[in-house]
Amino acid sequence: CGGHSLQYFLAEYCTDQSWKDKYIDRAIFLAPSFGGVGQSFPALWEKKFPLLPMIKSKELSAMVESMVVVLAHLPNTIIFGNKTIVRSTEDVEYTASQIRDLLIEHKKVTGDNIKILDECQKNLTTRDISPPGVPTYIIYNSGAHTKFFAHFKNGWDKPPDMIPTKGDGTIPAKGIKYACRNWPTNEFTVQCIDLYRDLNSFEHTPLASNPYVHDLIFNLTKSDWNKEKVRRMQKAPYVVLKNNSYI
């Protein structure tokens, strides 16, 4: 949640622009989870912790529905708008704004955990992804199949088929592209690069150990891109990793 937390801190918590101007030279986001994560809805529905799906227990089920990190990464209602997020057996369609009631109706979020869900809705999933107020560069991947949309073909009591969208295997690219296209550039640059690869080494977690990404971030800390006032969206070159290096 590094990028998610950084954006929230700079955009929502740190409202003193003079402080940011003095102390923040630039922000470089790597695959930030703007707009939601595909694992959140099925984790709540099936009561499985996303990182350890093979482990099941009554205590774990209760924990999952209270986890802010899961509830806060349900689909953002502004980014996904009227797009279908869930489809029932009878082909009834549900949008991001209907997910909260659907989870409560089917007792996937219960008791006091509904209050946590509502706080996440109010502060995160129903709010715009506001600009951080500093020069920004976002590195992301839209080339890997990323499970996000749920189709309950066999009824509500069966696990849904998860339909993929573009992303890095974990983070859908739609929220990141929204920021790239909508954050204003009249004061600060907004630049984004799409790695656009479907290899495991370019999926969400491996990006942090990808040598090409390491070099890219290192170079971005040194160059003067932050002085421009432009919007630039690029695709990375075709990169092949080899022996902890790249071509």
Describe what you observe in this structure.
It contains 10 helices and 10 strands. By secondary structure, the protein is an alpha/beta fold. Strands 1-4-7-8 form a 4-stranded parallel β-sheet, with helices on both faces. Strands 3-2-5-6 form a 4-stranded mixed β-sheet, with no helix packed on it. The longest helix has 13 residues, at 113-125. It starts with a helix and ends with a strand.
- Poorly predicted sequence stretches spanning 5 or more consecutive residues: none
Q: Roughly what percent helix?
A: 25-40%
Neighbour order of strands in the largest sheet: 1-4-7-8
- Coarse morphology: globular
State the end-to-end distance: 30 Å
Strand content: 15-25%
Count helical runs.
10
The total of beta strands comes to 10
pLDDT averaged residue by residue: 94
Main beta sheet, described? 4 strands, parallel
Q: Which structural class should the secondary elements be placed in? A: alpha/beta
Radius of gyration: 19 Å
Order of helices and strands: HHEHHHHEEHHEEEHEHEEE
List keywords for this structure.
single chain; 247 residues; four-stranded parallel β-sheet; 10 helices; globular
Summarize the helices and strands and which ones pair or pack:
Blueprint: H1 2-13, H2 17-23, E1 27-30, H3 40-46, H4 58-64, H5 68-71, H6 77-80, E2 84-87, E3 93-95, H7 99-105, H8 113-125, E4 136-140, E5 144-151, E6 161-167, H9 173-182, E7 190-194, H10 211-222, E8 231-235, E9 241-242, E10 245-246
Parallel strand pairs: 1-4, 2-5, 4-7, 7-8
Antiparallel strand pairs: 2-3, 5-6, 9-10
